[in-house]
Amino acid sequence: FAKTMSYMRALFSSQKSVPAKLNGLRWRMFSSVSVGDHSLGMDDRPTLEASIRTEDGSRSSKRLRRAGIIPSVLFGGRYNETRKLIQVSEPSLREQVRLRGDSLTNTVFDLAVDGEVHAAIPNQLQRHPVTDKIISVNFILFRKGLRVKMPIRFINDQASAALQRGAYLLPIARELRCRVLAEPIPNRVDVDLTGVAVKDVVRLDRVLLPHELEVDTPDLDPNFVIATVVGKRLK
């Protein structure tokens, strides 16, 4: 255990010394390997009904929640200069959370606001700390180049002799910051563990990135650590 902790301290200290950006370089990785489930395309976007709300503030928000309505804000523009107060049905939103899980914030919805349809992505979903009920959610108008945080999924662990014989993976990053280049947005980004050995460091070269995404800075650094493999070395 002491050796493992010493190794991890050295790993983190080396990562901090690496520059966070590569002078605007855009590093895109492609793979012919399937990257898992995708969200629906623009022709099959899920629809979520919303309406304009005229009041803002904590008191009005509490009244809405008691009535089963979630206060929300629709942001738009490159710098989110557009701000529109809206509200959505709590049961409808809860059903979308149940269906999509972690991929909810990477799903493009047809957000129908009083009959006007906007392509938008949920953002900043907040829950009550005790009841876990949804108390707030914002939306961002979808556009090419939009920044998203993609959940990471590790695959092909069965193709690593070390992991099959008692070594284990220590995830360091749970998400990867990306820019959206096109729809549909994948539900997650896969990281290939084929052939990893004890003390291997999993970096961006093992990410199977689809053509709809590109890695965003500062995660663009090729020395960015996603995970490491720890355990007994195979003889």
TrEMBL record:
N-terminal signal peptide: none
Gene3D superfamilies xref list? Ribosomal protein L25, beta domain, Ribosomal Protein L25, Chain P
Q: Name one GO biological process term.
A: translation
Keywords, sorted A to Z: Ribonucleoprotein, Ribosomal protein, RNA-binding, rRNA-binding
**What residue stretches are annotated with the Large ribosomal subunit protein bL25 beta domain?**
147-232
Large ribosomal subunit protein bL25 L25 domain boundaries: 48-139
GO annotations of cellular component type: cytosolic large ribosomal subunit
GO MF terms listed in the record are: 5S rRNA binding; structural constituent of ribosome
Specify the superkingdom: Eukaryota
Q: Which NCBIfam families match?
A: bL25_bact_ctc
The entry's protein name is 50S ribosomal protein L25
Q: Which organism is it from?
A: Octactis speculum
